[in-house]
Write a structure and sequence with these properties.
Elements: H1 3-11, E1 22-26, E2 44-48, H2 56-59, E3 67-71, E4 74-76, E5 82-88, H3 101-104, E6 115-125, H4 126-132, E7 140-143, H5 149-154, H6 158-161, E8 166-169, H7 183-190, E9 195-201, E10 204-205, H8 210-220, H9 228-231, E11 235-236, E12 240-245, H10 255-267, H11 271-285, H12 289-324
Parallel strand pairs: 1-2, 1-7, 2-3, 4-6, 7-8
Antiparallel strand pairs: 5-6, 8-12, 9-12, 10-11
């Protein structure tokens, strides 16, 4: 069964009619969050971004969500009505926190964080916004708040946090902002909660000062400027990290939650975990849908086994040809 067909079969069930998936997007600039493409049209999205330059794709309805609420405000964990916001050369680097210019001077992309304007902008408290919308559960939490990811997540009440199914963060590794929430602190915090790391990517760039870049340009030519990542070694500056709820406290989750957790695990290609969720669902709810969802996973795994066998045969033939030659 194709992805879209099985996703539709699950998310069009009566359990989601009055209680669709809730996706929380903090730092909603740029294109619609790619992992949500398959479930957006079935979901409610609550989006926050204080930089109006890059949120139009959501405001004009092109996000493709069933329903969307957009806050063109700074989202905070505090109760302040206004905060200073640093609008940078790249809108993707704008933040509630001041860029750490001294630290950024060591990195090739430091100029993107140059502050073009400091504006006093109205803020919205995350919990207050959810209360206004009468949203009592977040299913998929995604934040790229440029330095305040953890404090926003931690500001939610424990009842909401423990029932979040997936949580995606982009914490820093280098000191890009003054007083930012960094990867190490996030890992330590999440280790105490019912989550496990599904995936972690490490975007990289070159650590090089302007003076060093100028010296290289003088010695080897101007082509060094546009080809740094190919010529020099890159190093991680942040992490794109995703957590999934471990469902150890499965008694706190209802049929809807199990179906949505299976869907998320399936989309993330965590097939073993999806099979685990389906098996638990069968025992808890005695609903035949979970037998079908188990079959979907088994077929996926069998498909991968067939592909692996074909690859082994192919490379076996290649090696045999090499030996004959």
């Amino acid at each position: 069964m194709l992805n879209k067909q099985i996703i539709a079969k699950v998310l069009l069930r009566k359990e989601f009619a009055d209680n669709p998936p809730v996706l929380l997007d903090i730092g909603a600039s740029g294109k619609t969050y790619e992992p949500w493409n398959e479930i957006a049209k079935y979901s409610i999205c609550v989006a926050f971004d204080a930089d109006a330059r890059e949120i139009k794709h959501i405001e004009d309805g092109s996000g493709g969500y069933k329903k969307i609420y957009v806050y063109n405000k700074i989202v905070t964990s505090s109760n302040n009505k206004e905060e200073y916001f640093y609008l940078t050369k790249s809108p993707y680097c704008s933040s509630l926190l001041e860029p750490n210019i001294i630290s950024l001077a060591d990195w090739s992309f430091g100029d993107l964080f140059s502050v073009e304007k400091v504006a006093k902008i109205k803020t919205v408290n995350l919990n207050q916004a959810l209360t206004e919308l009468n949203i009592k559960q977040i299913d998929w939490f995604k934040t790229d708040s440029q330095g305040t990811d953890l404090r926003l997540f931690a500001s939610l009440n424990s009842g909401i946090i423990n029932k979040i199914l997936a949580a995606d963060f982009e914490p820093g590794i280098i000191d890009a902002y003054t007083g930012e929430d960094k990867l190490g602190t996030l890992l330590s915090y999440m280790d105490k909660l019912p989550f496990w790391v599904d995936e972690m990517k490490l975007p990289k760039t070159v650590r090089i000062k302007k003076e060093t870049k100028k010296l290289l340009s003088e010695k080897v030519g101007n082509q060094i400027e546009n080809n740094l990542n190919y010529i020099l070694k890159s190093s991680p500056f942040c992490a794109e990290i995703s957590f999934l709820n471990n469902f150890k406290s499965f008694e706190n989750f209802n049929l809807r939650d199990f179906l949505l957790m299976w869907t998320i695990a399936y989309l993330k290609k965590q097939y073993a975990f999806a099979l685990e969720i389906a098996s638990m669902g069968t025992e808890k709810f005695n609903d035949e849908v979970f037998d079908e969802l188990k079959d979907v996973i088994i077929k996926k795994i069998n498909q991968k086994i067939r592909i692996l066998k074909i690859k082994k045969i192919f490379f076996g033939l290649i090696n045999l040809i090499k030996k004959i030659r």
